[in-house]
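Second attempt. The first submission of Ribulose-phosphate 3-epimerase had a stray character pasted in from the spreadsheet, which I only caught after the job came back as garbage. Lesson logged: always re-copy from the clean sequence file. Corrected sequence (236 aa) follows.
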Amino acid sequence: MVKPIVAPSILASDFANLACGCHKVINAGADWLHIDVMDGHFVPNITLGQPIVASLRKAVPRVDDNSSSAPKAFFDCHMMVESPEKWVTDFVKCGADQFTFHYEATKDPLALVKLIKSHNIRAACAIKPGTPVDVLFELGPHLDMALVMTVEPGFGGQKFMIDMMPKVEALRNKFPQLDIQVDGGLGKDTIPHAAKAGANVIVAGTSVFTAENPSEVISFMKAEVSDNLQSRGLLN
Ligand SMILES: O=C(CO)[C@H](O)[C@H](O)COP(=O)(O)O
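This time the job returned cleanly.
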């Protein structure tokens, strides 16, 4: 069953106080942490890699880890890298719960989905704004999530591209039970468009990490998604 999920992008956090910032947004109601991995090749920016994810995993345990009382979260790793197949094993080891690769970065998306799932984590595929949505139609039944980028990948704090919404709508109509994520420029002002189109997994960096009251922003976004899923008969 699809449900509303808010995934703050740690790209907008203060990296010197990463664990603290993550605990704050989890306590404010975030379900996932969205971890933007950029290699300076697939996108024109470099962010973070396995050592940071492994350290963060110690401070933020898995949701099913009952040995710790620390705030827990699902690690949603968005791999904006060339040759994503090279990094699956390393990211599984450092604590990824989901590995999202870019359709544009691999020659064999289905083989990559199978490789990711063979490690018992979730597999997702992202498309850049210039990539047509139909490339995901064949792959859809094999995916745990599809990500429609609503900015050109590479940097946080960009303007939401409303013209990506028909892609979201097409995916929701074709795959009613698939997690559909949107990423880039999401906040209280843009969430109505994404929710109306049928997105249920909302990545929000700037709008959550810089909010005075992150809990209010997260609740607002979840309510918008929830209302739309309900109107589609997808939420019980
Ligand atoms: O993938 C990304 C950039 O490539 C970021 O996750 C995205 O831009 C979110 O940041 P913001 O909410 O600040 O726009």
